[in-house]
Amino acid sequence: MRVKVPPGTRIMPHTHRDERVYTVLAGEWKLGFGEKFDAGKLMTFPAGSVYRLPANVPQFQAAGRSETIVQINSVGPSTTEFLDPSDGVQKK
């Protein structure tokens, strides 16, 4: 799937039951690991970056200062399990 994310969007901690490969097509994508969102742990991936995430690893993400487009490849079925039901996608 391809995801278009507005600038400053944060995706709160979650897991997926499937392994995923991310390709950053435009903008910059930020990724951190853990069960709590911590901006200090975010790693930045500019356009052209590709990375793999194993299944069931707690992670959080954010878009950079411009609109970001990310392509996500996996073999489903897929799920997204937020670690705190009140969390989810938040705009800065």
Q: For the record, give the distance between the C-alpha atoms at the N and C termini, rounded to a whole number.
A: 24 Å
What's the level 1 CATH class? Mainly Beta
Mean pLDDT: 90
How many separate structural domains? 1
What ranges have pLDDT less than 50 throughout 5 or more consecutive residues?
none
Strand-residue proportion: over 45%
**How many E-type strands?**
10
Which overall shape is indicated by the principal axes computed on the Cα atoms?
Answer: globular
- CATH topology heading: Jelly Rolls
- Supply the CATH superfamily name: Jelly Rolls
Total number of helices: 0
Gyration radius from CA atoms, angstroms: 12 Å
Residues in helix, %: under 10%
Second CATH tier, the architecture: Sandwich
Could you spell the SSE succession in H and E letters?
A: EEEEEEEEEE
Helix and strand content put the structural class at mainly beta
Largest sheet: 6 strands, antiparallel
